[in-house]
Amino acid sequence: MLNDKRPFSDEDRAILNSYSAVVEGVSALIGGHCEIVLHSLEDLEHSAIFIANGHNTNRQVGSPVTDFALKSLRSMQTESVSKPYFTRAKGNGLMKSVTIAIRNKTRRIIGLLCININLDVPMSQFVQSLMPTAEHNEASEVNFASSVEELVTQTIEQTVEEVAADRLVSNNNKNRQVVISLYEKGIFDIKDAINLVAERLDISRHTVYLYIRQIKQDQEELK
Fold first, then answer.
1. ∠ at Cα 57 (52, 62), nearest 5°?
2. Whose CA is closest to 49, among 61, 35, 34?
3. pLDDT of 151-208, one tens digit each?
4. Which of 47, 171, 215, 218 could pair with 65 in a Cys bridge, judged by C-beta atoms 3.0 to 4.6 Å apart?
5. 153: alpha, beta or left, given left = phi > 0 and alpha = psi -120 to 50?
6. Please, is 79 exposed, middle or buried when counting C-beta atoms within 10 Å of its C-beta (0-12, 13-18, 19+)?
7. Residues facing 34 on adjacent strands
8. Which residue, 217, 15, 195, 7, is CA-closest to 101?
9. To which H or E segment does residue 95 belong?
């Protein structure tokens, strides 16, 4: 795989750089005990182009690719994700790792995303990193629907209940408030959502469209 000496294109580099958001996202989700390294195979001696929580292995941007990562490339001719494996950090800490191949549009592997979880972190610290903090002490309700129609239906029902329980919204204004809330939740970006909303609220599609136009007009006036 590394016998391909063709120089990287701007598109190749753009693909690799787009994975920096994945590095940040995984780090934010799992915590400081999880090291995520984005490698570019353009320069093996300085392959690490983005890294989160490098303190786990004392690596930083500009560090070289590992010997194990190079070895993994041989088994990634067809697979894009390595089997989980265990390694030892410099401090002899045990780590569980996985390597993900990043390919360009011609299927050439141009980079690696390596995720390493430090298993030597105390269990209490590991669990604490996954729990809500004082800043995020409330869990948000999420509709894990199995279909688009179910997603829309669940969101409508949840919103109807929220508006019905709001004493500040008059009975005459509840349908409009439901549409406003659904609009803010982005539900009308889904095809046929307007039909389902109109049917559930027992109003016409025209009325739903009218409410949406009014919302957009109000937003424009606030700009």
1. 65
2. 61
3. 888 899 999 999 999 989 898 899 999 999 999 999 999 988 999 999 999 999 999 9
4. 47
5. alpha
6. exposed
7. 117
8. 15
9. strand 94-103
